[in-house]
Write a structure and sequence with these properties.
Blueprint: H1 6-14, H2 16-24, H3 33-39, H4 44-57, E1 78-85, E2 100-104, E3 107-111, E4 122-126, E5 131-135, E6 138-139, E7 149-153, E8 156-160, E9 163-167, E10 172-175, E11 179-183, E12 188-192, E13 195-196, E14 206-210, E15 213-220, E16 226-234, E17 239-242, E18 253-254, E19 257-261, E20 286-290, E21 293-294, E22 303-307, E23 314-316, E24 332-336, E25 341-345, E26 348-350, E27 357-359, E28 363-367, E29 372-380, E30 390-394, E31 397-401, E32 414-418, H5 421-467
Parallel strand pairs: 1-29, 6-12, 13-17
Antiparallel strand pairs: 1-32, 2-3, 3-4, 4-5, 7-8, 8-11, 9-10, 11-12, 14-15, 15-16, 16-17, 18-21, 19-20, 20-22, 22-23, 24-25, 25-28, 26-27, 28-29, 30-31, 31-32
């Protein structure tokens, strides 16, 4: 194959036909045989003629918001994604709600949660081998908890708060205020002795890491009173400090989510007041807080941003183009630093003055470079609506586990949302092929079963007719 210079390739890609090809085909950056034929043509007529025979045999994909295989940033307002369920090999942990999931070294660490009982176990899912493993609790053993937070810092998982055992004497659900560190390399739990401002015990709060600080906001105390305070834990000095954030705050909030959004990952020694967020093409860097139950105990779809890197910190409510998610709580919101998007999935909303609630299975993506809600075209085997699940993101994928529906616990399967459009389309084609094959097999089984039933009926009918014949011989 003839070698082409970068100038030739770029010139072709900028031509009308080149733009057509690379818009309608999720092409790789390397040149294929049909591209070589096009580049060998010197005029537009020859290009059209050369492409005419090839284009008929090539299947075109719809014009979509597209991310290349190197995960470049989107430029349109639409994205195609695909769900699929992982077939886990061997043992898997029982399903649960209000647990946490943390990604390290191609593994997902599942901590706590509640199902038939409140859990304190640590289970790790190996992404490459598709297997689960239960780890031994060693060290300052973590208490059983749910509705807690888990953040990553310097190769460790920092666990804070959560609900635990029910106190029958005082008729309340106890909450935790201690900080535990899970060391990934040794699978060892260590209790962090902290100083400074006392932070009341809580559950259903949000937490994220900004530089060397863990920022905590809102939640519920053990009397189920909603909280509106903010505090930071200096993970280097191990000291708590209350935060005074100027601007209009969300007020009392629980069951919400938060994520630190920045173009450049800050150093683990940087202060929340000095962290640099001015580059990386993020329209509005800071700590994003979305949804939850507000002080009136109504579901919210408000999006707030805490602007960091200055003193004092400041609340803002940015204007975002596109259609936002509906009000919800007990959802998940994950920041994907590779694609520069926030991913919101699921959650629930209660119907007014009733005990009925609705769980969602919709997906929303916020493009943080163009600051707009994208239209998401969802393909594949879509999971059932749920709330109280947990999620984590790596590469161009989001993983979810557990949760509850309107009436029962969800299965203990892991679901994956593929957000690379070219991979998503190919994955959906495989899913549809399998679905068609399964339908054909089921149709065949039903047909075969029907034939068997019919044959049995005919056989019984013949037997009845045969038994009525008089075989006696008259003399």
């Amino acid at each position: 194959m003839q070698e082409y210079s970068p100038y030739q390739i770029q010139k072709f890609r900028q031509s009308p036909l080149g733009r057509l090809i690379y818009k309608t085909d999720t092409a790789d950056s390397s040149l294929s045989a049909y591209t070589q034929a096009l580049l060998d043509s010197s005029t537009s007529e020859q290009l059209q003629k050369s492409y005419k025979g090839i284009s008929r045999s090539r299947k075109k994909t719809p014009s979509i918001y597209s991310v290349s295989r190197s995960a470049s940033t989107p430029s349109y307002n639409e994205i195609t994604v695909c769900w699929h369920r992982i077939n886990v090999e061997g043992w898997k942990p029982e399903t649960r709600q209000e647990s946490t999931l943390s990604h390290f070294n191609e593994s997902l660490y599942l901590i706590g949660g509640v199902s038939r009982s409140i859990n304190k176990d640590v289970n790790v899912y190996r992404i490459n081998s598709k297997t689960w493993q239960r780890l031994d609790n060693i060290g300052d053993i973590n208490e059983p908890r749910f509705g807690h937070s888990a953040v990553k810092y310097e190769g460790n998982i920092i666990v804070f708060g959560g609900g635990t055992h029910y106190d029958h004497k005082h008729k309340l659900r106890e909450c935790l205020s201690g900080v535990h560190v899970f060391h990934i390399d040794t699978c060892f739990w260590q209790y962090m002795k902290t100083q400074g401002t006392y932070l009341p015990a809580r559950k259903y709060h949000s937490a994220c890491v900004v530089g060397c600080h863990m920022l905590v906001y809102g939640g519920m105390n053990q009397k189920n009173n909603m909280l509106s305070d903010a505090a930071v834990l200096n993970l280097k000095k191990k000291t708590w400090k209350s935060l005074e954030i100027c601007g209009k705050s969300p007020g009392k909030l629980s069951f919400h989510t938060s994520a630190f959004v920045t173009g450049l990952e800050p150093g683990t020694n940087e202060s929340i007041y000095k962290v640099f967020t001015g580059s990386g093409k993020i329209a509005c860097p800071g700590v994003y807080v979305f949804g939850g139950l507000n002080g009136e105990k109504k579901a919210s779809n408000m999006l707030y941003v805490i602007q960091v890197g200055k003193r004092p910190l400041e609340w803002t409510t940015p204007t975002i183009a596109g259609k936002p998610p509906s009000p919800r709580f007990l959802h998940t919101m994950i920041y994907n630093s590779l694609l520069k998007v926030l991913i919101i999935f699921g959650g629930r909303v209660d119907l007014a003055k009733t005990t009925v609630y609705t769980c969602f299975n919709d997906v929303f993506l916020l493009d943080l470079q163009n600051f707009q809600w994208l239209h998401v075209n969802v393909l594949g085997e879509i999971p059932i609506g749920r709330s109280g699940h947990t999620a984590e993101s790596t590469d161009c994928r989001m993983y979810i586990f557990g949760g509850v529906t309107n009436s029962c616990y969800c299965s203990g399967d892991i679901w994956v949302l593929e957000m690379d459009p070219s991979t998503a389309i190919a994955m959906n084609e495989e899913f549809m092929k399998k679905k068609r094959l399964d339908n054909e097999i089921n149709d065949y089984k039903q047909h075969a079963q029907g034939v068997t039933i019919t044959n049995r009926a005919i056989s019984r009918s013949r037997t009845r007719r045969f038994s009525k014949i008089d075989f006696s011989v008259n003399p």
